[in-house]
Fold:
Amino acid sequence: MTTTTTTTRAPVRRAASVGSGRPHGGPPSARRRRERLYQWLFLVPASVYLVLFFGYPVVKNLIMSFQDYGTATFYTGEAPWVGFDNYAKVLGSTIFTTAALNTALFTAGSIVGQFVIGLGLAVFFRKKFPLSGVLRSLLLLPWLIPLIASGAVWKWILDKDSGALNQFLEALHLVPNGVPWLTSTQLALVAVVGVNVWIGIPFNVTILYGGLQDIPDELYEAAALDGATGWRSFWNITWPMLRPVVNVVLVLGVVYTLKVLDIILALTGGGPANASQTIATESYALSFEQFRFGEGSALGNILVLISLVFALFYLRASRRGVED
Structure:
């Protein structure tokens, strides 16, 4: 007789290991910590660059503006603390009044000229025609040429005796003799403004042309069906749609123009008789021609404060442009 034995095996349950996985809400893994470390390391070069070439000069300039900092300081290393005396000297000088007025006139004339001509060219180039792309590229040349080189070329063009502009005007019998563009107290600032307008036009054209490209053509087509063309189309469609870009261009233009130095130094050096002296050129003259570094730093800080005011307007205008 055969006996069959049936063996029943109990199921073996795998015990869940309680500490095998990372609990929810615990510390980040080593991999995530390494990735975060790498992200911070990539910021180190930019941070060092900003601190060395922007942060340190700004702080040093601010400290110098409260010191009697002169040429002897470089040898002795001692600069007496004078508080706000440097600011009182530069604000109370007659040259500051002239420089502030010239700065306002130079900035206003440059911004109006650059914007009006730039907007006209941007609207013109919005229409497609042969070689439009080539002409737009050529417009960038004044912006790409170094400012010192541009100043040297324009100084030759505006020269009273051998300048190309005077020779051209004399050939057309528009002027009997050479016009002293750069040596006349009445014309020096006008000439400098004209050259700065020529330099700033490409920036205005580029930004405004980009803004015009964002305006849908369907709006102009619908307006044409209603009989709105030309100026009516510009005032009712182009200008309202372009207003956020216009705000940014104008505010940035003011900030850039306030600190213009190279062109004025190359053309007139702030003369004649301070006729084209601005806050920027006067700060340069105090620091590097008269070696009154404390007063030059104070005047430079005043210009920075003025620029910061317009920079705040720029941030507000750009924020409005994003919201619109």
In short: Residues 95-323 form a domain with the MetI-like fold fold (CATH 1.10.3720.10).
